[in-house]
Design brief:
single chain; alpha/beta; 8-stranded mixed beta sheet; 7 helices; 8 strands; about 40% helix; about 15% strand
Length: about 230
């Protein structure tokens, strides 16, 4: 059984992923920014709470010390932007989204790399979205081409690129990004599939073992085009 850390685990996909992994017998650390909500979520899911704000260096370093040994890191924490048209996008909008969705994942991955490199079956899984696919975004017939959230889309494309770069830099790790599909979380106002369905995709890929793929963009139905 593996030791697994999930960021943004107090609700939605992160919470359901934690609950499913605990059920399978794994030791699951649930990284949460809100301590009260995080402790309650960990109690409900059967995981271990660790305070973790992916936008703060000190918080991430402290979490790495608290967790110690680690086999699998799931960078799940993410935020959507206000629906702002491109001509009105400012650097403040960019920073607010990229700080969690991109910088936060990089910050967290780097902090836990020493522990992960000690594992014989280490993996990093970045939770992304197919709207971050350049191929799909450039296809005007794709169902999500007209979907708004331009900055969010760009942040997930950036996260996908970092996934590839980490996979090349650390061949001993399995580093993949996964699109769990459109999911009815609070962030999506309940629109989409149940979070437990999305979690099942993440769990399957996160627990694939040392013979699993690396440097891939994966979804519920297989490979997603870059």
């Amino acid at each position: 059984m593996a030791i697994i850390l999930i960021t943004g685990a107090s609700r939605g996909i992160g919470f359901e992923t934690a609950r499913a992994l605990v059920t399978e017998g794994h030791t699951v650390w649930m990284g949460c920014r809100d301590e009260s909500r995080g402790r309650q979520a960990a109690t409900t899911a059967g995981g271990r709470f660790v305070h973790l704000d992916v936008t703060a260096d000190e918080s991430v370093r402290a979490a790495a010390t608290a967790v110690g040994a680690l086999d699998v890191l799931i960078n799940n924490a993410g935020v959507l932007e206000p629906d702002v048209p491109l001509p009105d996008v400012t650097t403040s909008h960019l920073t607010a989204i990229f700080d969690t969705n991109v910088f936060g994942a990089v910050r967290t991955t780097n902090a836990f790399l020493p522990a992960l490199l000690q594992s014989s079956s280490a993996a990093v899984l970045n939770v992304t979205s197919s709207i971050g696919s350049l191929t799909k975004s450039a296809d005007f017939t794709d169902e999500f081409t007209a979907y708004p959230q331009d900055v969010y889309r760009a942040s997930k494309a950036a996260l996908n690129m970092f996934t590839v770069q980490y996979a090349k830099a650390y061949p001993a790790l399995r580093v993949n990004c996964v699109d769990p599909g459109l999911t009815g979380t609070d962030m999506m106002n309940g629109f989409g599939q149940p979070p437990a369905v999305a979690a099942a995709t993440i769990v399957r890929i996160a627990t694939a073992g040392p013979d699993g793929p690396t440097g891939r963009f994966l979804g519920a139905d297989g490979v997603v085009p870059w």
